[in-house]
Write a structure and sequence with these properties.
The complex is a heterodimer of chains A (489) and B (523). Chain A is mostly helical and 489 residues long. Helix content of chain A is 76%, strand content 1%. Chain A has a domain at 264-489. Chain A has 21 helices and two strands. In chain A, a hairpin with a 4-residue loop joins strand 1 (60-62) and strand 2. The chains are: A mainly alpha (489), B mainly alpha (523). Chains A and B meet through helix 17, helix 18 and helix 20 of A and helix 5 and helix 6 of B.
Chain lengths: 489, 523
């Protein structure tokens, strides 16, 4: 039986579990009127979970090496919880008219965030698989949450089918790894690979990494495991999409980084080659297809695929031993934090407009600046940040990621990344163009609930402030790399 | 110590924020707030200019660590190369705000907010001494300008705005990559990671890298200048932009490109500068002749002025790349002159467009009878644009040609000189067709002459045309030390590195300050 201290170390997870259960209880026991508190209960849970984080990070593992309590994990836990808060804020209004079953939604969302936290801490093959599956199931349910809506159903089924295939591939890879090492622990795996000069072990190692990549690639929506994204983005409830695009992606990156850097350092050259190809395909395909989209949600889906490609550059350039501040790894962390506020902010606006007018096609955004001046103006901030144009935090993220690629000599990757970010300006601008340069067909003002306005304003303020004063973010990301000081062979 | 340069960047920004709190319907208040903001900013920049000492050092320097791990700092300062461009910016911003007093009636508040943001960013570009900071300001100028074209422009404004964004983005992202590679290379050489220009200049850039880095910087700047063949965005952007947008675009934004060469590309990469000079000189000369020929056949007055910009900027580039005192001084002066003359030309085109809603040359004719004041103003500006002695254009052009002729670019200069004649041809021919002849079109017979506001806007420009044409000494004197320093950096390293065997260096640039300027002789 673990002692009290161990329990304390996983208090964010425990808090979310308790609050998830609390939501069920209120939903079942409370009257209809009391359901209005549900979203705020979920938010309180997330806030408490975040509040414990600064006291916990210790760079150790618990539960017999299965679960890491390090700053790296906590960085991602914070991202997951912040993503959860913002998702709840945009869900309140979205769900009001669409479904009666609100309690289930917040429960699933709370548990989905819990799953991302567990992914961030997983250091054993078993935990990796369980946490990924946990997140997947929560996500399938959330994607299909609007039972009456055919598109939502379609999204859930497609998501499930792709998820099942990639998870089977990943499971196969995990079992190969267990076969090689006889241990579930990532740290043992490293030793095994380093000690063995057997060619078949090497071959199996590469094969199993490739198979694992299917599972991670599915979560981060990297080509060729991205096909679910456009349909799910279009069909699933928009707040869920917002969460998937940020929380789920961040957790996928957490696992990818941890596994690649702590279990496979022996195959550094091989996985770099593999990921380079994936990254270039992901950026290029995402951007080129996004150019042709007319549906805002599908456009954001392809944009989020492309963004995963940029982040992969940071993973490839991750150099944890270098003396340079451009280490790739901190680039990914900064990029993810930037992407969190940027993409969620953009989604808040998409949801607000969809709620008020039902518009999801770019031509329907025509003249938005006259109908919702504040939203339109803030849209520009988020798109600048997505395109990596200063003075936004997205620029800081791209700066670190591309800087690391150049520093480590990945010139081709950097070149492809840069060309892609120019292409991306074109389609991000297509929305701005409709919103600002074209005349509205119907000039009625769009009413936006105060909660939404507040959350979009907070996101925009952070996008700008973190760009002008990036120091705290850079420091946090630097701390977040803590684990690699001890885990490196 | 309080830093006035930072105030210069901050003031328009504060003005923009204040405007956000002015009620939407209150257009008068909005215009006045914007106008006063630009006026105060101008006053401060003039005060800075007055207390500017004619030395080669950076002045009013402020340096605060921004992202210390990366050696990035908020590092600003001005020298002779930049102070005049700052003053030009603040000066023309007042004109631009005044020039759109009646022309802009829709979304007035947003318009002025964007203008003030633009001013802040442009000043930032000219005073940044840190490459990261420079890039941030450089990129940020793009956004307000694209919106000004896209929202308040004419006709194919959306196409023009997007073309403008994509062209400039392409160049600037490559520049970002080049900045990073440069900084990393300098770190390997010196051991300290720093984005500050002064630190980077301390160690020579490896010769192997110079070519490619120069190419990346040069491309970004060439698109901005714009040099042939990267100029195609300019006629579109100019034609569709609102009047004040064109003024700022031509008069200031283009100078960011030429300034980039003088401040960054040439001093940082001397060997590459030498290698690329024939190419750049060729493109400049092609630009001068080609743009002049295209301008000649334009039917739209505004497009004609836009193409004349390409030709004028060709002269600037030629002078700058001559890399001697006259050449660079001429190039720098020509940047200011072009800002004033072309800014004035765009305002003039705006005046008749506001009256007639057309800019086709064939729609006019004989306007001088109906609008005598307008005709006088137009005449002076036209003559200044073609570089008649006594006006500012002459001094700059003359120095450029003398400098380039004295340098290794002699034969380019010979060809470029024909551009001077061509510019007279297309400008005077346009002037003749618009202003003289029969006043046959009945719509033109009722045109009103310039009103008081329009005259007040034009007077400062005309005064500057003559001041800089007759007595350019105060401007040149303040530039020369910085120019000499820039030439020294851009040249000596190349001599040390490329011809180390040479016993003595005979071709050291002469550094004595110029005492007599050609225009002063003229008098």
């Amino acid at each position: 039986m673990p002692d009290l201290n161990t329990w304390l170390l996983i208090s964010p997870e425990l808090i979310l579990t308790v609050f998830g259960l609390l939501i069920i209880v209120i939903d079942l026991v409370g009257r209809e009127k009391s359901h209005a508190v549900l979203p705020w209960v979920a938010i309180l849970g997330f806030i408490l979970a975040i509040a414990t984080i600064p006291y916990l990070a210790q760079d150790q593992t618990i539960f017999a090496g299965m679960y890491a309590i390090d700053k790296f994990a906590f960085f991602f836990k914070a991202i997951g919880a912040i993503g959860g808060i913002l998702t709840v804020l945009i869900s309140i209004d979205f769900l009001r008219t669409r479904t009666p079953a609100k309690g289930d939604f917040y429960l699933l969302l709370t548990f989905a965030v819990l799953a991302t936290m567990m992914m961030a801490s997983s250091t054993s093959l078993l935990m990796i698989y369980l946490s990924i599956e946990f997140l997947s199931y929560m996500s399938y349910l959330l994607a299909g949450f609007l039972r009456e809506d055919k598109k939502s159903n379609e999204a859930a089924i497609k998501y499930f089918l792709y998820g099942a295939v990639t998870s089977a591939l990943m499971l196969y890879g995990l079992s190969l790894l267990y076969g090689i090492s006889g241990s579930l622990n990532l740290a043992d795996l490293t030793k095994q690979f380093a000690a063995s000069s057997d060619l078949s072990v090497k071959a199996l190692g590469i094969v199993s990494f490739t198979l694992l990549l299917a599972g991670f690639g599915f979560k981060i929506s990297a080509v060729p495991f991205h096909q679910w994204a456009p349909d799910v983005y279009e069909g699933a409830p928009t707040p869920v999409v917002a969460f998937l695009s940020v929380g789920s992606k961040a957790a996928g990156f957490a696992l990818l980084l941890r596994v690649a850097l702590t279990a496979f350092p022996t195959f550094h050259a091989e996985w770099i080659a593999l990921l380079s190809v994936v990254a270039m395909m992901t950026m290029t395909l995402g951007n080129l297809v996004a150019l042709q989209q007319t549906n805002v949600k599908r456009l954001l889906a392809y944009s989020s695929i492309a963004q995963a490609g940029y982040m992969l550059i940071g993973v490839i350039a991750a150099n944890v031993s270098g003396a340079s501040p451009f280490m790739g790894l901190n680039g990914v962390l900064i990029y993810l934090a930037a992407y969190l506020f940027t993409n969620l902010g953009a989604f808040v606006i998409v949801v607000a407009i969809e709620n008020a007018t039902g518009a999801v096609e770019i031509p329907e955004y025509a003249g938005l600046v006259k109908r919702a001046p504040l939203l339109a103006a803030l849209f520009v901030v988020f798109f600048l940040s997505l395109a990596g144009i200063p003075p936004t935090v997205g620029f800081i993220g791209k700066f670190f990621v591309f800087g690391a690629a150049l520093r480590e000599g990945f010139l081709l990757l950097a070149a492809v990344g840069v060309i892609n970010s120019v292409i991306s300006v074109f389609y991000y601008f297509s929305i701005i163009r409709a919103a600002f340069f074209e005349e509205p067909k119907d000039a009625t003002l769009i009413r936006v609930p105060g909660v939404m306005t507040a959350s979009v304003a907070i996101c925009a303020a952070l996008v700008l402030l973190l760009a002008v004063f990036p120091q705290s973010l850079i420091d946090l990301a630097g701390m977040g790399m803590g684990m690699f000081g001890i885990a490196r062979p | 110590m309080f830093n006035y340069l930072s105030l210069l960047i901050a003031l328009p920004l504060i003005g923009a924020i204040v405007l956000l709190f002015v009620p939407r319907a209150n257009d008068r208040v909005v215009r006045w707030v914007a106008f006063i903001t630009t006026l105060v900013t101008f006053a401060i920049s003039v005060a800075l200019f007055a207390s500017f000492r004619a030395t080669a050092d950076m002045q009013f320097v402020e340096r605060v660590a921004w992202i210390p791990q990366l050696g990035i700092s908020y590092y600003i300062g001005v020298d002779g190369l930049s102070i005049l461009l700052v003053v030009l910016t603040t000066f023309l911003m007042i004109i631009a705000i005044g020039g759109s007093w009646n022309g802009i009636t829709e979304r007035v508040r947003e318009y002025h907010v964007l203008f003030l943001l633009l001013e802040s960013a442009i000043i930032g570009v000219f005073v940044s001494l840190d490459l990261f900071l420079f890039y941030v300001f450089w990129e940020f100028t793009l956004i307000p300008m694209a919106f000004l074209i896209g929202i308040w422009g004419h006709g194919r404004r959306i196409y023009a705005a997007i073309k403008f964004i994509l062209f400039t983005m392409l160049g600037s992202t490559l520049m970002l990559v080049a900045i990073l590679v440069l900084v990393f290379a300098q770190r390997d050489a010196s051991g300290a990671l720093s984005f500050a220009l002064t630190d980077i200049l301390k160690t020579p850039v490896p010769i192997a890298l110079q070519g490619i880095l120069f190419a990346a910087f040069a491309l970004a700047f060439a698109i901005k200048v714009p040099m042939f063949p990267f100029h195609t965005w300019l006629p579109d952007a100019h034609t569709e932009a609102p009047t004040a947008g064109s003024v700022i675009l031509a008069a200031i934004l283009l100078k960011m490109g030429t300034y980039g060469y003088v401040r960054f590309a040439m001093p940082l990469f001397p060997q590459a500068t030498e290698q690329f000079t024939p190419l750049i000189a060729t493109l400049s000369v092609i630009g001068i002749i080609y743009a002049a020929l295209v301008a000649m056949v334009q039917e739209d007055v505004k497009k004609l002025v836009a193409y004349s910009s390409v030709a004028h900027l060709g002269f600037v580039m030629l002078g700058v790349f001559a890399l001697n005192q006259q050449g660079v001084a001429g190039g720098m002066l020509q940047m200011l002159n072009h800002g004033i003359s072309t800014g004035a030309l765009f305002l003039i085109v705006g005046f008749i467009y506001e009256r007639r809603h057309t800019r086709l040359i064939t729609d006019f004719g004989g306007l001088s009878k109906q609008m005598p004041i307008f005709a006088t103003v137009f005449m002076i500006v036209t003559l200044s644009s073609i570089g008649l002695p006594g006006t500012n254009g002459f001094v700059g052009e003359f120095l450029v040609l003398v400098g380039a002729y004295e340098s290794h670019l002699r034969w380019y200069t010979v060809i470029a000189t024909s551009g001077v004649i061509l510019s007279a041809v297309y400008m005077l021919w346009m002037f003749q067709r618009v202003m003289f002849g029969e006043l046959s079109n009945p719509k033109n017979q009722v045109l009103k002459d310039l009103n008081a506001r329009e005259i007040v806007i034009m007077v400062p420009l005309i005064v500057m045309i003559f001041v800089m044409g007759l007595y350019p000494k105060p401007f040149i004197d303040r530039m020369v030390p910085a120019i000499d320093k820039m030439i020294l950096i851009s040249k000596t390293k190349q001599q040390v590195a490329s011809v180390p065997a040479m016993p003595a260096m005979p071709a050291m640039p002469h550094a004595e300050p110029m005492t007599v300027t050609p225009a002063a002789e003229e008098k």
